[in-house]
Amino acid sequence: MIKRLAIIACLAGTATFAQKANDQYSLEAGYGLGISGKPGITELSHFEVGFRYMVDESWGLKFDFGSDRFRTGDNPELGSDYKRYSVQAVYNLGRNLRADERVGNFGLLAHGGLGYSSLKSLTRGGTDNIGHVIIGLTSQLYLSRSFSLTFDTSFILNFTQHYNFDGLHPEKQTGSGLESFTGKMFNASLGLTYYFGKNKSDSDWR
What is the pLDDT of residue 170? Predict the structure, then answer.
């Protein structure tokens, strides 16, 4: 919890400073579902926060943090805690499809990038260090010049993963060693974006 609050405070402080220099910065946060690959756990426990800078009307850059908890059965000590840190490119898909001309308060962003993840096994008591690739879509409903309501869907591929999301390693259970594999997971979240700067809507070139 302390680490999560520190990340949020750092992002908020950076964005507050940045608003004095440019109108193309925004801060976003969301909460929703985390859906894992094997053994297929679904939890309403996903949290994410991100800081975005739009370089021009089409492209931007986003730094984001995501957190998920996966539990098996009724035992809180069986499962895993997953955290990811990503750097992503952002493409203003809605504007380039001219969605803003058809529906004035609607936007759509595509995003994708790379990052680092940690998967802490509560079952085995170890931590897995993982690299990941993430791609996704973020739909936007502009509530005002300062805020938009967002719905994000993201797909994540984890490389060199050793533990399953239930905290167990399938190969280790059979005595075959700790071989790595590619894990998959999916996030769906509802959230808010806050736009900084005097000309707030310039953040998405509306």
Answer: 67
Q: Are 189 and 11 in contact (CB under 8 A)?
A: no
Examine the pLDDT at 73 and tell me if it is beyond 80. no
pTM: 0.82
Could you tell me the end-to-end alpha-carbon distance of the chain, in angstroms, rounded to an integer? 36
Strand partners, 22: none
- As given in the structure block, the two tokens for residue 190 are 């509802």
Three-class SS of residue 94? helix
CB neighbour list of residue 148: distance below 8 Å, 6 or more residues apart: 107, 140, 141, 142, 192, 193, 195, 204
- Residue extents of the structural domains in the chain: 2-204
Which stretches does DSSP call E strand in 2-144? 25-36, 42-54, 59-71, 79-91, 106-121, 127-142
Distances from the Cα of 25 to the Cα of 6, 45, 111, 200, angstroms: 20, 27, 16, 9
Measured in degrees and rounded to the nearest 5, phi and psi for residue 167 equal 90, 0
Residue carrying structure tokens 């297929």 = 40
Q: Over 60: is that where the pLDDT of 50 sits?
A: yes
Q: Tell the CATH topology of 2-204.
A: Porin (2.40.160)
Cβ contact 105:141 at 8 Å: yes
- 16-41: per-residue pLDDT in tens? 444 444 578 999 999 999 999 878 89
